[in-house]
Design a protein that fits this description.
The complex is a heterotrimer of chains A (263), B (232) and C (235). Helix content of chain A is 73%, strand content 0%. Chain A has 263 residues and is mainly α. Chain A has one domain (31-260). Chain A is elongated and about 60 Å long. The chains are: A mainly alpha (263), B mainly alpha (232), C alpha/beta (235).
Chain lengths: 263, 232, 235
């Protein structure tokens, strides 16, 4: 039985209806839109977050413990302690972020779920944005734990700040911007290091110098909120944080595909 | 590669000549600086190192984009060569900066904008090399280090402006900006000398990487004969 | 020689296809043409390159040598387009450990662009015997259960080209019968199939042609029925 005798064109006629009406002659089918993919990815992240809430609790506990350690080494005088609060608070956020970031890709690599997504195909940019947002959200959720702990340990009275309206809201705004600045490049780097031997060393090594601008800007901004902003500089530091997040968010969206595809 | 003339050696020769001449003029012939005296002469090495370090890392950035775009080995080899050279030069920059700080301000470290930025850059790009060392697959190594280089490079201006702004709130001595005409000549000579020296290093390292890849990459096995059956 | 076909009739074409991992050539000199609607069995022992071949067709790796095209497009370079036309059932289940079966299927249905109602999802799960909510999250699934769930993903994608890597492994006899009847359905619908399998007898009767891979190279080509006979003869 030779293949030449088979009637190939008629086979095409017996095929079941294609996935969508737009079936081009080459056989490629137009799938769901990028926006639909993004929505599906966000829903997936939310569901996975919900299932793994205990993990978030552990990270928050870790952050609180680092604050306790910092408070032991902070200067004893009240005035100096308050100045140091901003730095220690942001450091606690930074250290906690390495934990939550490195974990965020563990579930994707366990059964190679990420490869499965890419095979559907789901656009890598949609996967990245959803993941980065989920990581951002995780870091923001640390605020209700870490900020009160810091305020208590370092004897900071939020009502005593001068020149800053709604200090708590301002603090949360800085926290959110810093979290965005950490989540954007962190998600990209976590994707590359999650499977690596020595990942516990390589991720911080790559990540820490990269986010120095976030560290500096967030510490400055937080210090201004806590101690008073006589010269009105808070807005500029917040802007720097925003620019950082936007730059790295854009880079991550563009480069994520290269970071996760085999080749 | 044996027997084929490797152009970079000619470049090295040129580099050594230029650096010798430039350094001699800088150390012996050029006038001492008004305020700092002979200490300032370190600038004849420091400034070219800064320029060429930045240039090497820019080459790495461009090569990284090329590597992601084309996927060919030679771009990755260029990435390795220029990153390693850039990291070494940045390390040198740091040490020179610290010597300068010690000589002019009496302290080994000062949170000077350039010193701080070069420290961050050093760790940043050394981190990329650490990433490379932990990846076994050659293809992954290439695409991941390219991604890391692009992100790191984009970060440098952010780091610079952030640190600069962070420092501008305090009184800080800065390195002198204006340069006398008599000092420009050794500076330029050394700059070109460093440029050629860096080129030599980058090309040698890239060639080494390509050679290593060639050794690792075994050739296609021989095609075996296929048994063809027409009928069941 | 692979029979020459008109380009529009070719679903998969590999020419001198080769892939190296480190020092080892997983595939070399692979020439393969699969016509639309054809089913080809890829046989060979472990490590012979069957999985690698399917992965290359799906565009997961770039060929080190030669080329592979699906419906006329290079698999890796145009992987986004190519993947819309095919679906791969691989050794990895591509599952999320903390989701349960229903959530997994719902996720896939949404990603494929055909969100299903709860009733439809329940019916699908019923077909693979995973409809019981008390089964819990995927983390507690056996290999066979994961396999059955992965099958649903391929079903939902409704691809023109189906790549199956050991579709019968990890399944009990009921599961294997289910897969067999599913493959027959696909064939009746005119889909193109590439099946890599150890179970020669079971797979050969579902396929038109077969090739045998050994150390990454094709050493035998012929009708599937001849392949079944070949394996049964003493070597």
């Amino acid at each position: 039985m030779s293949l030449a005798s088979r009637e190939l064109p008629s086979v095409a006629a017996t095929m079941a209806p294609p996935r969508s009406p737009a079936d081009t002659p080459a056989g490629a089918i137009s799938g769901p839109s990028w926006l639909n993919n993004l929505r599906a990815m966000l829903a997936k992240e939310l569901l996975l977050e919900w299932r793994n809430l205990s993990r978030l609790g552990s990270v928050a506990l870790f952050g609180a413990v680092t604050l306790v350690l910092f408070s032991f080494v902070a200067p004893p005088q009240a005035g100096a302690r308050r100045m140091a609060t901003a730095g220690f608070l942001v450091l606690a956020l930074l250290l906690s972020s390495t934990l939550s970031l490195s974990e965020s890709f563990r579930k994707e690599t366990h059964h190679r779920a990420l490869t499965g997504l890419l095979l559907v195909p789901v656009a890598p940019s949609a996967i990245f944005i959803a993941k980065a947002f989920a990581n951002f959200f995780q870091l923001v959720l640390l605020a209700p734990v870490l900020i009160p702990v810091a305020l208590v340990l370092f004897s900071v009275d939020l009502t005593a700040t001068s020149g800053v309206s709604y200090p708590l809201l301002q603090l949360l705004a800085v926290w959110a911007l810093a979290s965005a600045g950490l989540a954007a490049p962190g998600t990209l780097y976590a994707a590359m290091t999650s499977d690596l031997r020595g990942r516990d060393v390589v991720l911080p090594l790559l990540f820490f110098p990269l986010v120095v601008p976030v560290l500096l800007a967030a510490v400055k901004a937080t210090a201004l909120v806590l101690s008073g902003d006589a010269m009105g500089q808070l807005g500029s530091w917040n802007l720097l944080l925003l620019i950082f997040a936007v730059v790295h968010g854009t880079l991550g969206t563009v480069l994520f595909g290269y970071a996760v595809e085999e080749s | 590669m044996r027997g084929k003339f490797q152009w970079e050696h000619a470049v090295l020769l040129l580099a050594l000549v230029l650096l010798t001449v430039g350094t001699y003029i800088g150390l012996a012939v050029a006038p001492p600086e008004r305020h700092m005296g002979d200490v300032q002469r370190i600038m004849y090495v420091h400034v070219p190192t800064a320029w060429i370090a930045m240039l090497s890392l820019t080459v790495a950035f461009v090569a990284a984009i090329g590597s992601l775009w084309s996927g060919k080995h030679k771009w990755d080899a260029a990435v390795v060569g220029s990153t390693e050279t850039g990291v070494v030069l940045t390390g040198l920059l740091l040490s020179q900066g610290m010597i300068w700080a010690r000589a002019t301000w009496g302290v080994w470290w000062d949170w000077d904008v350039r010193l701080t930025t070069s420290l961050v850059m050093f760790i940043l790009f050394a981190g990329v090399l650490a990433l490379r060392a932990s990846v076994d697959s050659a293809e992954r190594r290439a695409s991941w280090s390219a991604v890391a280089i692009i992100v790191a490079y984009a970060d440098v201006p952010l780091v610079y402006f952030c640190v600069r702004w962070w420092r501008s709130l305090h009184q800080v001595q800065s390195t002198p900006e204006t340069v006398d005409a008599a000092m420009m000549l050794p500076l330029r000579i050394n700059a070109f000398g460093m440029l050629f020296l860096a080129t030599w290093f980058i090309v040698r390292r890239a060639r080494l990487e390509l050679a290593q890849r060639q050794v690792e990459e075994t050739t296609l096995p021989e095609r075996r004969s296929v048994e063809e059956v027409q009928h069941a | 020689m692979e029979p020459k076909l008109e380009s529009s009739a070719v679903a998969i074409r590999g020419r001198g296809l080769g892939r190296r991992f480190g020092r080892r050539w997983a595939l070399a000199h692979v020439d393969l043409e699969v016509a639309r609607g054809e089913a080809v069995l890829i046989a060979g022992s472990n490590g012979s390159g069957k999985s690698t071949l399917l992965q290359l067709v799906a565009g997961l790796y770039q060929p080190t040598h030669g080329s592979v095209e699906v419906l006329g497009r290079p698999s890796h370079e145009q992987r986004r387009t190519v993947r819309r036309s095919l679906s791969l059932l691989a050794h990895d289940s591509y599952l999320y450990a903390s989701l349960n079966a229903r959530e997994t299927v719902k996720l896939w249905a949404g990603l494929v662009g055909r969100p299903r109602s709860d009733a439809e999802l329940a019916a699908l799960l019923e077909e693979v015997d995973l409809a019981d909510p008390s089964l819990g999250a995927v983390a507690g699934f056996s290999a066979g259960m994961r396999k059955r769930l992965s099958l649903l993903r391929v079903r939902l994608e409704e691809p023109q080209i189906v790549l199956l890597d050991e579709p019968f492994s990890a399944l009990d006899s009921a599961g294997r019968l289910m897969v067999e009847s599913w493959i027959r359905e696909l064939r009746a619908a005119g889909r193109t199939l590439l099946i890599a399998s150890h179970s020669i007898e079971r797979s050969a009767r579902l396929c038109d042609r077969g090739v045998v891979l050994d150390q990454g190279q094709i050493i035998w080509r012929g009708p599937a029925s001849a392949l079944a006979k070949r394996k049964m003869e003493p070597r």
